[in-house]
Amino acid sequence: MNIHLSAVVAEGAVVPDSCEVGPFCTIGPDVVLGEDCRLISHVVLEGRTILGARNVIYPFTSIGVPPQDLKYGGEPTQTEIGDDNTIRECITISRGTAKGGGVTRVGSKNLLMAYVHIGHDCIVGSGCILANAATLAGHVTIEDFATVGAFSPVHQFCTVGKYAFIGGGTIVTQDVLPFSKTSVRRENKAFGVNSLGLERRGFSADRIKSLQRAFRLLLVSKLNTTQALEKIRDLEGDDVALLVQFIERSERGVIK
Question: Are residues 6 and 131 in the same domain?
Fold first, then answer.
């Protein structure tokens, strides 16, 4: 087991022999690491925290720390992180709260850039990119393959849909449409389909064209959202169906 002499690993922590724990790391008694994780240095893992395999965590990151919520009273909530994540410098990931479901969860193969904050009870999917200083308030959901730009705060209880791209410096106070490009000028607006990002994810030209037809009805036509949805339902494709379902279940409204 490769554990630096200056690291502190509490009795009860599960650290496989394949892991590397660098200088001045602190691992609490209820932490479970998967195989081949690498803690470079000055990493703090607290609480009931479970990490999958092959995660790389950079210096001055704290995971599983108590939530920044005055209602939290020390309940035994937890943090769950999947496999193959890159977690860069100075990131904070708070554990869940009893009233919020009890779990903060991050999926697999995500890139979390420096100074990202993931608040209590957040759910981050897989294949996501959270750029520098992206900030998720409590109870935020980021669906698979979404990108949150640098210095973009996301309000409590908002959902960012699959494959969405949020430009840097965007203040998100409503749900972000899946497949969309959303950014700020004078106010937050969706600017259509995230075509380049979808191409990079292997979407065919036909899939993208189908989504573009749906977004034209939603964003460019003079129809209101209800009228646009009636016409979008006539379009074919699983992606269009997902878009419709996202809008229908939104509780905070969507950015158009």
Answer: yes
